[in-house]
Design brief:
binds heme C; 47% helix; 3 domains; Cytochrome Bc1 Complex, Chain D, domain 2; 4% strand; two-stranded antiparallel sheet; elongated
């Protein structure tokens, strides 16, 4: 017999080698450890159990079903049933909760915002954009510039009845068509358009030609300073946010023909719960305003101040100043 067929024996350990060699390192042919073998046998036996209990082997008519009758569909069904039960708990709580309660309850609020977001994509995004950013003639709902109001109750009313929607309770108003109906002459419209643009840039002065026209024809709805009038959904003009556009041509057109944007009504088309979710969602977008009672809440604060001594007051004032970001300095000492 030649040496080649005999396994080589490692001199140090006295164990056969497998004949594999890497850079002078030789692999010993040690048997697998006992504990490892046992685990291996146990897993083999275990797998037989699995084949019996769970669906396993393909057959001509499909596959073995397993004695448990387990399927992924059943698992999914059970999980979905659980989710439905959980949702139902929220849906019930939501149905019975007032807006005030929803705004205070973190879970209900999250539930409402999520539901409203989905409903918004389906019903509102076509006009207002998927991020509610708006477009020409369609207001951006993310900012705090509101035509009709940004309180929960305002938004809810807008959603239910719409704006110039034809519903009996819709929000309705109509800016006169100053040019088409011959209320103002062309140069008056030109002047007032210039004045409106100046208002938006903060450059309007009382001696401008359009100032008088504005005071006589526009201030009733848009406010003396162009601050807007929510009772009639008249946009604020003294800012850089435009619904239709702030260039001379567009503003001229707006004043000549007037605009009358239509927001559909949703009462009867969407469930009341969906409308309430949408309301909370729109309110959450960033421009949401507090209800009157809530807005009045900070009022008690000043009462607490007189209790503090003079020294403490000063200290408080300096401490609070950066946090409150008050634009005006509070004390003479700082100047
Ligand atoms: C057919 C287009 C259209 C659809 C769909 C639509 N809107 Fe509107 N929406 C408008 C227009 C136009 C206005 C502005 C009306 C105006 O000029 O006064 C408006 C105004 C609003 C306002 C008032 C904004 C303010 O500043 O006071 C809210 C809130 C609003 N929409 C929310 C929604 C929600 C929520 C939906 C979905 C349920 C929706 N809209 C669907 C066209 C639409
Ligand atoms: C009866 C109330 C009323 C009067 C009076 C009125 N407006 Fe308006 N105005 C509105 C309303 C309401 C809108 C919003 C229309 C819409 O949303 O479709 C509007 C919109 C506008 C816009 C569009 C703003 C934007 O963001 O694009 C301009 C500009 C404007 N008005 C200027 C004027 C001027 C100038 C006058 C006076 C010559 C005038 N309005 C008089 C109610 C009025």
């Amino acid at each position: 017999m030649s040496d080649q067929n005999k396994p080589e024996i490692d001199k140090i350990s006295g164990v056969e080698t497998t004949g594999h060699e890497w850079d002078g390192l030789k692999e010993l042919n040690n048997p697998a450890p006992r504990w490892w073998l046992w685990i291996f046998y146990v897993t083999c036996i275990w797998s037989f159990g699995y084949w019996v209990v769970y669906p396993a082997w393909p057959t001509l008519s499909g596959h073995t079903k397993g004695t448990l009758g387990w399927t992924q569909f059943k698992k999914l069904e059970n999980e979905q049933a659980e989710i439905t039960v959980r949702q139902a708990t929220y849906a019930d709580a939501f149905k019975n909760a007032s807006f005030e309660q929803i705004m205070k309850d973190e879970k209900l609020y999250t539930f409402a915002v999520a539901g409203g977001k989905a409903a918004f994509k389906n019903n509102c995004a076509t006009c207002h954009g998927s991020g509610a950013q708006g477009g020409k003639g369609y207001p951006n709902l993310n900012d705090d510039d509101w035509l009709w109001g940004g309180k929960v109750s305002d938004i809810y009313q807008t959603l239910q009845y719409g704006i110039r929607s034809g519903h009996d309770e819709a929000r309705v108003s109509q800016m006169p068509s100053f040019g088409k109906d011959g209320v103002l002459k062309q140069d008056e419209i030109k002047g007032v358009a210039e004045y409106v643009i100046a208002l938006s840039e903060g450059k309007a002065t009382a001696d401008m030609a359009g100032a008088k026209v504005f005071a006589e024809n526009c201030a009733a709805c848009h406010g003396e300073q162009g601050q807007g009038g929510r009772e009639v959904g008249a946009p604020k003009l003294a800012d850089a946010i435009w619904l239709y556009g702030g260039d001379e041509k567009t503003v001229y057109e707006t004043v000549y023909n007037a605009r009358a944007g239509v927001m559909p009504y949703w009462k009867g088309k969407l469930s009341d719960d969906t409308l309430r979710m949408l309301t909370v969602y729109v309110h959450s977008l960033g421009g949401g305003e507090a209800e009157e009672q809530q807005a009045a809440a900070p009022a008690p604060a000043p009462e607490a101040v007189p209790a503090a001594t003079e020294g403490e007051q000063q200290q408080n004032a300096t401490e609070q100043q950066p946090a409150a970001a008050q634009p005006a300095p509070t004390g003479g000492e700082q100047q």
